Amino acid sequence: MNFHSVRFIALLTIIAGSTLTRSFAQDVVVPRNFDAEIEAALRSAKRAAGFEFLGTLNRICLLPASGGVNTSDNLPRYVRDPDTIPAREVWYAEPAKVYDNLYFVGGKVHTSWALTTSDGIIIIDTIFPYNSEELIIGGLEKLGLNPADIKYVIISHAHGDHIGGAQILQERYGAQVAMGAADWDLVTTYPNRYATMAPKREIVATDGMQLILGDTIVSLWETPGHTPGTLSYTFTVFDNGRPVSVAYSGGTAFNFVNNTPDPGIENFQIYIEAQQHIAQQAEAVAASVLLSNHSEFDNAVNRNKMLAGRGDGPHPYEVGAEWVQRYFQVMQGCARAAQLRLEKELFENPTL
Ligand SMILES: [Zn+2]
């Protein structure tokens, strides 16, 4: 058989194939099995999580979606009435030196990080307005660092548990605050919601922007979904002088579902694509550490305890590049399962 007849037969096969596909599509309607699709998405998330990311899996795959976030312009309860501030024992955690240039200055639940550079300190996320003073400022002092050296504060997203201390740090130390455009807009649109935690608009982060301070670069990545302006980051830390790449995941839970009119299917798509984006950036720098701003997602508080007894052993935060990728697969699998649940609901109740 010469080349031309091979090509002719191949062409016939394509034509026959497409005819078959068409007639099959016309005659048989295969109903979508949403439950099987949801199950497959959950299975992929569970497989990716292994024993390493059970907190994240639990929160966004297994537990019911957390309640909607504050969409009103009312004063938050803890600002309005200091008696409602949770007891210190609920949130206090010891600060810790985690890498040569990275310090944990967060709490038991919500966390904050200090990246030290040759020209000052970058604070990555703050906590609530009521505990930033003790955890961030007090934490830095306890670790022998000077809060007056804070030059930049990067806020992953404008929820009260992460933006809470930004105004304090900006006003007291003249630190410049960076955040995504859409989340800056939230701060100006809802003055009561952000009372005591509304930094002046300064650096508007864009995808791929590099925040440079002295010898240190933090790359900012837009990862919308959790909020429209959510940011994630990649940067380098040093373990006894050895460089280690970090991927920082800026927004996780699906508490937007109750706030999105459409009812969230599109928002989940944005979320999934954002996770693919940060996963690619993490892969590009071979990130082998995954950090977050909630200890339930990156297990920071427990890892800090392990760090204290590390000796010459491996660094407890360094899970390896493959596991960092698996983290983002957990987020995608759980988001896909939640998106499919909404698609199923819409399919069964088209008037929604
Ligand atoms: Zn949030």
Task: Write a structural description.
By secondary structure, this protein is of the alpha/beta class. The protein has 2 domains: 1-30; 37-348, 4-Layer Sandwich (Metallo-beta-lactamase, Chain A), CATH 3.60.15.10. Helix content is 43%, strand content 17%. The chain contains 13 helices and 12 strands. The chain has helices at 3-27, 34-49, 54-62, 77-80, 88-91, 132-142, 160-163, 166-173, 181-189, 265-284, 295-298, 300-308, 321-348, and strands spanning 96-99, 102-104, 113-117, 120-124, 150-154, 176-180, 203-205, 210-213, 216-222, 231-239, 242-248, 289-291. Strands 1-2-3-4-5-6-7 form a 7-stranded mixed beta sheet, sandwiched between helices. A hairpin with a 2-residue loop joins strand 3 and strand 4 (120-124). Helix 2 (34-49) packs antiparallel against helix 13 and helix 3 runs parallel beside helix 13. The termini are far apart. 43% of the residues are buried. Mean pLDDT is 91; it is low at 1-23. Bound molecules: zinc ion (ZN).
SSE layout and pairing:
Elements: H1 3-27, H2 34-49, H3 54-62, H4 77-80, H5 88-91, E1 96-99, E2 102-104, E3 113-117, E4 120-124, H6 132-142, E5 150-154, H7 160-163, H8 166-173, E6 176-180, H9 181-189, E7 203-205, E8 210-213, E9 216-222, E10 231-239, E11 242-248, H10 265-284, E12 289-291, H11 295-298, H12 300-308, H13 321-348
Parallel strand pairs: 4-5, 5-6, 6-7, 11-12
Antiparallel strand pairs: 1-2, 2-3, 3-4, 8-9, 9-10, 10-11
Helix pairs in contact: 2-3, 2-13, 3-13, 10-13
The chain binds zinc ion.
